[in-house]
Amino acid sequence: MKKVLVMMLVVVTAYACGNQNGGSTTKAPGSEATTNDNPSYDPQRGEGKFTKVEVAATIDAKLLENGTKVYTVKCSACHKLTGEKLVGPGWTGVTKRHTAEWIMNFVTNTDAMLNKDPKAQALLEICLVRMPNQNVSDDDARGIYEFMRKNDGIK
Amino acid sequence: MRTYKFSAMALIAVALVIGFIACKPKNAGNAVSADAASKVYVAPGKYDEFYNFVSGGFSGQMSVYGLPSGRLLKVVPIFSINPENGYGFSEESKPMLNTSHGFIPWDDQHHLDLSQTNGEIDGRWIFANANNTPRVARVDLSTFHTSEIIELPNSAGNHSSPFITENTEYVVAGTRFSVPPDDVNGDVPINTYKKNFKGTISFISVDKGSGKMDIAFQLQCPGVNFDLSHSGKEKSHGWFFFSCYNTEQANTLLEVNASQNDKDFIMAVNWKKAEEYLKAGKGRKQSVKYAHNVYDEKTHTATSEIKTEVTVLDTKLLKDICYFIPCPKSPHGCDVDPTGEYIVGSGKLAALIPVFSFDKIQAAIAAKDYIGDYDGIPIIKYESALYGEVKKPGLGPLHTEFDGKGNAYTSFFVSSEVVKWNIKDLKVLDRAPTYYSVGHLCIPGGDTKKPNAKYLIAYNKITKDRYLPTGPELAQSAQLYDISGDKMQLILDFPTIGEPHYAQAVSADLIKNNSVKFFKIDENTNKYVSKGESTTKVVREGNKVHIYMTAIRSHFSPDNIEGVKLGDEVYFHITNLEQDWDVPHGFAIKAAGNAELLIMPGETQTLKWTPDRVGIIPIYCTDFCSALHQEMQGYVRVSQAGSNVPISYSLGTNLPNADSTTKK
């Protein structure tokens, strides 16, 4: 009898605790819907420190030079300069698909974006490899963006 | 609901207690208090409060545990090759294990000491001794890498090491085996110990900024066995204390022959005095050979240099450096309390603990209160140096740690217990059993000026039935005691690797925030680094083939390589292009006679491979890196010696048909 009572109490206790855990179920990466649930979230900008990136009409040679270096070391292993997907998407047209802010936020705040941003998650569903956080500095991110612009035909 | 839940818990607790009593446990289980589980529980995802650095004994490595959970966090390879991460296998790390005797793959690691500033742990480095082929290592606690290893000439069995001074001015290394010095003909009859054998103590200086070690000087001492040591602190800063045994100078059956004298010695060393002699040019330059190995975190490469000279101070001729203090029954531990006034000697065969007073030692030296000399070194009268004795504390005292509240904790090997006693009145306050036959003890900061005495860990010599049996060879047994109250409380057993000897523990806050997460690829200056896939290549230099390769989730570049021939020596120089925390890549090639690699983000590591047959040889990544990790693979084609298949390499494109091998 004592045993049964104890068992019952254990069950009750477990039940009582159940609600506390209920609120914090963790979501698997990429499992969120691709719609924008959060009205305050700007999917064109993404999440990160870049709110407004100044971009000139023509290519800045200095930015391009740095961007080319960073691309070689940190990006080229997975991104082709054509439209062909390697590990990640090819870069042709990337500056037309995303804003400068979105790209630079994604490059510098990769994990947070992959966990939250609808467009980033849609790409993850295609590529199935989470883009590595390559610890790209702000300046390097800007350089990469310039390199992408050049690749997209900006003179 | 809340009350109901509480009463339910209480009921269960009562039921448990009833069940517990009903079982009448006869084994060691009853030494554990009821709240032990909550004291050692660290919830998933939470950090431990302390790092515990534990010597790996005959494994040659150092293990790192979290406390109070006892979870193993890492094994840091120091003096032995390590298949887990390629230490001692990669071309970059091999020089770390070089000695004047050549490459030594496996040593015996006994003691650890964390670097200190002003007598407090500063969290920068931890020093380790190699007991067999005498060496001292420095491990950098930002990378948990062995940064430096220095070999010790004139030494054999570096046991009395690597204890440090209160500002890490020096790391010491006292020889266990006295031997003839390296620069004389050692081809002498073994039974000429008394005439030919000398004991050497090395003082290794440590650069304040870089940590770089250098043998500042060696003390040539009478031939005895130096065992353990600790530096003075506060008022006794400038002094070092070494226990020694075999003052009988026996060279055979030491078990009996070195246990004849009622008292051996603690040797007090005035190292400031030694520095004066050194400055005055009283040292003798001795021609020796020893290796000094340094690991560079920018090139990710170790270099080994053989050095050829050391300065020796003869303590028989140069007075006032060394003094002997009689200590009963083959002293082992030699521990100095946080105030620097009390020096605790522990005779392995004794049934008392002598406590010496630094002030009394100084007074005795001033008054030349000697009972004679031992091979030219004055012997202070026992009573004149003695503060007092702890009477009947237990059997076979070994080591003592301090809590900074005026208490000492001493391990007793023979009676298998830890005994807490008060330093001032020498009264025993508490005793707790250990399972079984305890050796070293550790309190966080327990050998410094500022102990953080929440826990005490006992490292036992015998494990027996403490864990599920695993055949004749068992894990080692460490035990955690809560010492925050008046009584010691056993709260956890945890298994350790090798055989734990001395250990160190420190608040995690001092270490964890400095931990390097990855190596910056921009700063990588390895000779064979590939900064980006476009720089990867395969280069033939005679019969050596250098493959500059990169790894990133989830492919190698290049991953198809042809033109390797039998008789070639192939070097895979692999750069991990990742720049994020916890993304190592592994590298393996079939039939590698030289293990594998594990390459941290931003690192370059090299595996040497000598093909032994013609054919297609696979390579792959051994560390699960992404969803497509199983795709991270490639092939190397091995042709006959003299074949005309040219060197070629590629990634992502099929090379021209095998019949047209002339061009890439």
Number of strands of chain B: 45
**Strand composition percent of chain A:** under 5%
Largest sheet of chain B: 10 strands, mixed
Which class of secondary structure composition applies to the elements of chain B?
Answer: mainly beta
| CATH level 4 superfamily of the domain at 62-155 in chain A | Cytochrome c-like domain
CATH class of the largest domain in chain B, anyone?
Mainly Beta
The fraction of residues assigned to DSSP E strands of chain B is: 35-45%
CA-based gyration radius of chain A: 22 Å
CATH-assigned homologous superfamily of the largest domain in chain B: YVTN repeat-like/Quinoprotein amine dehydrogenase
Low-confidence stretches of chain A: 4-34
CATH architecture of the largest domain in chain B: 7 Propeller
Radius of gyration of chain B: 28 Å
- Give the SSE string of chain A: HHHHHHH
Tell me about this structure.
The complex is a heterodimer of chains A (155) and B (664). Chain A is mainly alpha-helical. Helix content of chain A is 52%, strand content 0%. Chain A contains seven helices and no strands. Chain A has helices at residues 2-22, 61-75, 94-97, 100-108, 110-116, 118-127, 138-151. In chain A, helix 4 (100-108) crosses helix 5, helix 4 (100-108) crosses helix 7 and helix 5 (110-116) crosses helix 6 (118-127). In chain B, the strands form ten sheets. In chain B, strands 6-7-8-9-17-18-13-12-11-10 form a ten-stranded mixed beta sheet. In chain B, strands 41-40-43-44-38-45 form a six-stranded mixed beta sheet, with no helix packed on it. In chain B, strands 35, 36, 37, 39 and 42 form a five-stranded mixed beta sheet that branches. In chain B, strand 21 and strand 22 form a beta hairpin. The termini of chain B are far apart. The relative contact order of chain B is 0.10. Residues 1-6, 13-28 and 660-664 of chain B have low confidence and may be disordered. Chain A binds chain B through residues 2, 5-6, 9-10, 12-13, 16, 72-74, 76-78, 86-87, 128-130, 132-136, and chain B through 1, 4-5, 8-9, 11-12, 15, 518, 520-522, 531-535, 550, 552-555, 557, 577-580, 583, 626-628, 652.
